[in-house]
Write a structure and sequence with these properties.
This protein is an alpha/beta fold. It contains eleven helices and nine strands. It folds into two domains: 151 residues, Aspartate/ornithine carbamoyltransferase (Rossmann fold), CATH 3.40.50; 150 residues, Aspartate/ornithine carbamoyltransferase (Rossmann fold), CATH 3.40.50.1370.
Amino acid sequence: MVEWTKKHILEIKDLTRQEMEVVFNLASSFKEVSQREVKKTPALRGKTVVNLFFENSTRTRTSFELAAKRLSADVLNFSSSTSSISKGESVVDTIKNLESYHPDILIIRIDTSACLKNFLNYTKASIINAGDGKNEHPTQALLDMFTVKEVKGKLENLNVLIVGDIMHSRVCRSNIFGFQKFSSKVRVCGPPAFIPFEFEKLGVDVFYDLDKAIEEVDVIIMLRIQRERQNLAYFSTLREYVENFSLTPQRLKRAKRDCIVMHPGPVNWDVEISSTLKDELHPLILKQVENGLAIRMAVLYLVGAEKRERKTLRK
């Protein structure tokens, strides 16, 4: 059994394959908690968890909040739009002020990439990355991989295709790093302007033709176009994008028969995925949401519980 020693979860790059397996095993246990009549465990009783979100979020923020409450932690939700940030206070000063409350865990989403390690200097709390700019979104990758493992029975030696706005996607980067640690091959596909040259250095195969990219893949992860991160037009029209990169029933037939399709949400039906596939694909996408709660319970527990308590739960 691998002993968990990490205080923070900042990037998938920081986690070993064995550590990710600890998260998956614990998430499986916590899924059972959500099926009980009383959906709570005292694992983090007395701990304080702060949801510190400087960007909008629905699934990630609510699942972290519910995960913390199901572990019996006290939860403080922070929104930058209603805080002193809107009055000119800096992020660092906000963290220093929150540190006065002696929180145990800070869950941070922010629009600046790879900045969270700097915040370690201003708090004694554990920090969990809930998405930082275009860098990483580790818990989303963990829940995606956990979902694949449940459906496929394994994570090893799969062919994984990620389609869409590759450039602006922190989900894409985290999934690349995660799946590669299980010896799975990752390919990306999107408009040329959406795929920077740097991705070739990540050991992925780059495609610009979805009809070719989709052949013989086991897993497809569709991404939305992140207009909020774009200052330029990366394709001429939305209709052109849909024509070339939307997942349709005809395109899906090119993949393996048992290929699964996922999406981190929110899904723009008839843009990323044809609505004619909704009945077929939506249940698995909703399963990702369910699994997100279990994964976030697991990571909160691992960074927040005392060493003795972690051993007790895993026995």
